Amino acid sequence: MTHEAVISVQNLMKTFGSFHAVNDISFDVYRGEIFGFLGANGAGKTTAMKMLTGLWKPTSGKATVAGCDVFTQAESVKRSIGYMSQRFSLYADLTVKENIELFGGIYGLSTRHIREKRIELLSRLALTDSEHELISALPLGWKQKLAFSVAMLHDPQIVFLDEPTGGVDPITRRQFWDLIYEAADLGKTIFVTTHYMDEAEYCDRISMMVDGKITALGTPDDLKKQFLAKDMDEVFIKVARHTQPIGQ
């Protein structure tokens, strides 16, 4: 991790009528960092992610992702990032090979480059013998690993992962985090939302949102010290009791 900010957010807001879904949040994310974005359902983390990935236009504030302004360069933001949603972002009725080729084309890779990436990806994931299987036939854990690898196919600077390990067993979750670590070691920046507090421990820094505001931001160890907590579950409980933003 370096201290070069590849995501920079200042006083970002998203309102729906009188409702402030994201309310004046500010933070930076650094190159090569694994940045955890935590919050209960309705806290605003998904809305914030949609703005940072160029899907929704903010109401006010400032934000840049990979040097691109989310207000005026949303399409450039989308080309500069990888994204994996909770639903894996793969087509269940296409084969493994067809998904890789489809997304490689969407990302603008040449036929030769797609072929090279496909061979390397399948070998690394031990899926070479499964390239002609439908995505729907793969176990959940393999779908997630493949979706993450496809999100990395075009070599993006930043990868956004929205609840990537939901619904899988602890062993598969840990294997998935090994892929995240490998990507971070290559200098990729990982922005990940999760509701598993043990996964917060795997992040370099985490932010916690309550009612649209960032109420805590720091390393797991720093937050445990700040809130006199033995683990991240206890931190989250104590953070949820605060109504004023802290730690920014």
Automatic annotation (TrEMBL):
- Residue limits of the ABC transporter domain? 7-236
What keywords are assigned to this protein? ATP-binding, Nucleotide-binding
Any Pfam family the entry gives = ABC_tran
Molecular function (Gene Ontology), one example: ATP binding
**Is ATP-binding found in the keyword set?**
yes
- InterPro entries (UniProt xref): AAA+_ATPase, ABC_transporter-like_ATP-bd, P-loop_NTPase
Query: What SMART domains does this protein map onto?
Result: AAA
Q: Which PROSITE patterns match?
A: ABC_TRANSPORTER_2
Q: What is this protein called?
A: ABC transporter ATP-binding protein
